[in-house]
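Dear support,

I submitted the protein below through the web form. The confirmation email said the job was done, but the results page showed an empty box. After a refresh the structure appeared. I'm attaching both so you can tell me whether what I see now is the final result or a partial one.
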Amino acid sequence: MRADTKINRSTRRGTRRRSVPMLRTAPLPVLVGGTALALTGAIGLWQILPGQVAPTVGAGHGRGMSQVGAFDSAREGWTAEEILGHYYPGATLGQVGPTTIGVRLQAQDDATLDTYAAAGAQVAGRMIGPGEAAHLTPLPDGGANVVVTTGCDGEVLWQAATDDPFVYPVDAGPGRPAGEHLTLCGGTAYRGALGVALEGGAYRTVNQVDLDDYLAGLLPAEMQANWADQGAFEALRAQAIAARSYALAENRYTYAQTCDTTDCQVYPGTVKEDSRTTEAVAATAGTVLLRDGLILRSEYSAAPDGGRPADIETFAVGPAPGELVETAPAPPAPTYPTEPDPTIEAQAGESVIDAEYRRIGGAESAIGAPIGPEMQLPQQAGTYRLYTNGVIVATKTLGAQVVDFSTLLQLVPGAGDQLPPSASGEPKVTTPEGSAPTDIAPGEGAQVPAHPDGSTPGAGVPPADAPPAGAPTPGAGGVPPADAPAQAPSGAPVAGVPTPGAGGAPVAGVPLEAPVYGPANPAAAPGVYDGE
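What the results page shows now:
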């Protein structure tokens, strides 16, 4: 039975006593994962001024919790559980685990998705740099066409088709900093991933986002955050539980669970986020309303008369907490086969660094496993990625090259705090024969030093008249002095690139017939190397 208690409730007309129903708590196991399957419920937005509560939009449908009534009750000492028990008599409280939902962004209907992030992002299996924009157009097969530009309106850097029609932040976890949020070109920012879909031939944009990240953007758009400063924090807690339940009880579309307007629940992305409403979300983490063990579609409104208890039997219900399945807003983990696959299909969507890493043997190669995402070189001269025993650097001129940590620090002096513990001292990535990787000079373009005869190494084949690897250089004063900077001798192989006919040993696991990426063989990486 529902437990009833009595509290004193003050009103402007005096003090009276009212019976306050308490919600029963259904002891359900907390999930380790779950998928939010929807949203709805909507509601008017209220502006609170000193000494009054006044609606800024319509009063709503009047079913379920009244936001104004919740405000009044909270100020008179009611807890969130008491507020919900009054408006949803017979409901119980349950728990769900972390989960994500898909939100249709209605203002984006019939438009392409154009987005970027200050910290960079991921799309089509590739990293894009800070400020670089991804433009996605949905395809009938469920995939998307992708075009990446410098800024929202800059030059095209690359384009591809992908079967994963989402742009992901550099880190898919919840509660990430603002620099990692995806921002619509000319619009607002969103946590989580942004993607595209087709609905009857019409373009749709979807925000796939952690449920509590979603509520952090929704709550201050449905209730004023400053209610917390006026003795009504419990009203914010009640709103968080009702909104979470409403979201999980619906499944509006095949591609998303809810929308972002008053047709569902008002959700403007991150623009209204406030620490006070975020605290209310965190204070109710995982808590939902249930009817007969199923998540209640707990409608609510801005009814100015305080509303009245609802007949929850007339409300729809969603899945049971245990039926939710986690779908995190994260890209699929990259895989690196031990045997290189030279087909165009296998290389589609790879960055040139990913392609080189796969070619030299992936995690089984000398440089080991990746320890971070691809990062931008200074002056956008190229990109690099750290691995446990070395670095792969890629530029338009040279393609991808394996270098050591010392070389990286010449190119990116501020990268020291990114290096693994193994980088102490002067580590080198070497081939099985002990040959050092090529040093890449710092500065724009990140060019490999020229041979004494003026030729440029890195294309995989040394000049015809080059001396044997390690031999004194004719005309250059013989053997260089002992204190000369470490550098591959004339004709020595570039790390990770096989050198036919020069006796240089490639990195372990790299077959001699493997394609070389670079200006000498642009066709070896279709769709990746642009030949410039």
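Response: this is the final, complete result; the empty box was a page-load delay. Residues 1-20, 26-58, 335-348, 426-532 have pLDDT under 50 and may be disordered.
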